[in-house]
Amino acid sequence: MMIQFFNREKGVVEVEKVYGDRAIEWLYNSFPGRFFSNFLIKRFFSKWYGMYQNTRLSHRKIQPFLTNYEISLDEYLPETPNGNTTVPYPTFNSFFCRQFKPGARPLSEVQGEMPAFAEARYFGHREISPSLTIPVKGEYLTASRLLADERWAPLFQGGPILVARLCPVDYHRFHFPDDGRPLDHYRISGLFHSVNPLALKKKSDIFITNERHVTILDTVNFGKIAYIEVGAMFVGKIVQTFSKKVFRRGEEKGYFLFGASTVIVIGQKGLWYPTRDILENTEKGIETFVKLGTRVAVKN
Predict the structure, then answer these.
(1) If DSSP codes are grouped into helix, strand and coil, which group holds residue 154?
(2) What ranges in 30-69 are assigned the alpha helix state H?
(3) pLDDT band at 55 (very low <50, low <70, confident <90, very high)
(4) Would you list the domain boundaries of the chain?
(5) Beta-sheet pairing, 4-7 with 287-290
(6) CA-CA distances (angstroms) from residue 9 to 6, 125, 139, 242, 291?
(7) How buried is residue 267: exposed, middle or buried, by Cβ count under 10 Å (0-12/13-18/19+)?
(8) What is the pLDDT of residues 141-159, one digit of tens each?
(9) How confident is the model over 170-180, as pLDDT tens digits?
(10) Can you tell me the distance from the alpha carbon of 182 to that of 59, in angstroms, rounded to the nearest whole number?
(11) DSSP, residue by residue, 158-199
(12) Closest listed residue to residue 107, CA positions, set 299, 296, 274
């Protein structure tokens, strides 16, 4: 299966170079693979593999990864600025969680525009409904199933949704989409399936069976928002770095340790909607690659 996405900055459709594509195909398209995946999706294996990425041995994986996926480190802060190594990160996880240099990603300051909260490939819909089919069936994207908490689910029924998929090659920190304050935060235990479209095509319920971290935000410009980080295969940990009583637009909320994963944002019905290009590309079954801080939604 070829994965295409629209690169907004370049204005062209590109083909994704999938990390571990053969392994994912085998895990979800073969009988022995599906049997073995039942072992991989368990927490202890993903946590164990994630721990390996924190060892010095994992450093040797960085340079081949940079070469294979044509990643430049010019925009990123080094972790060992005074070191002699050509790759200024002591472990693969320190490279994986690298930070942008100040000013590398200008933030949209227009109050009626929601800046991208992750540098990722986005799907979006004006409202959640059972008739949705992209990227997964709408019945698996309901607020009730995603949030698994009836205190908050009714607030987001029929609201807009953005699904931001982070690839292993991407920047893996996620940020707040507006000024505001957190109202609630909780973790939903679950499995660790891959969130790659290759896996989603075979198993549509991944977003509601994988581990999720949910934060309910009360924002200045976009009302209340459900902010959901989804765990995935080999994700060592979802780290929350924010602990204040208020947050600012663009401020870091947390990051994923090794592994590709997803951030899902749901809003209240009628308050905002994804940008036109994201909506149009979603209708075509194509994700839109958006850089951190650029517009992904607008206020109604």
Answers:
(1) helix
(2) 31-40, 43-52, 62-68
(3) confident
(4) 15-96, 113-299
(5) parallel
(6) 9, 21, 32, 29, 8
(7) buried
(8) 889 989 999 999 999 999 9
(9) 999 999 999 99
(10) 36
(11) T--EEEEEEPTTS--EEE-SSSEEEEEEEEE--B----SHHH
(12) 296
The DSSP element (H or E) to which 281 belongs, if any, is helix 276-283
Q: How many residues does the chain have?
A: 300
* Residue 274 to residue 164: CA distance in whole angstroms: 12
Question: What is the token pair recorded at 130?
Answer: 């059972």
Token output for 214? 């949910």
The rounded distance, in Å, linking the Cα atoms of 144 and 149 is 7
Surface-to-core class of residue 277, CB atoms within 10 Å of its CB (0-12 exposed, 13-18 middle, 19+ buried): middle
Contact between 177 and 248 under an 8 Å Cβ cutoff? The reply is no
**Spatial separation of the C-alpha atoms in residues 253 and 69, rounded to whole Å:** 26
Q: How many angstroms separate the most distant Cα atoms in the chain?
A: 56
What strands, in cross-sheet order, belong to the sheet with 161-166?
A: 12-15, 4-7, 287-290, 120-125, 161-166, 261-267, 224-230, 212-219, 180-188
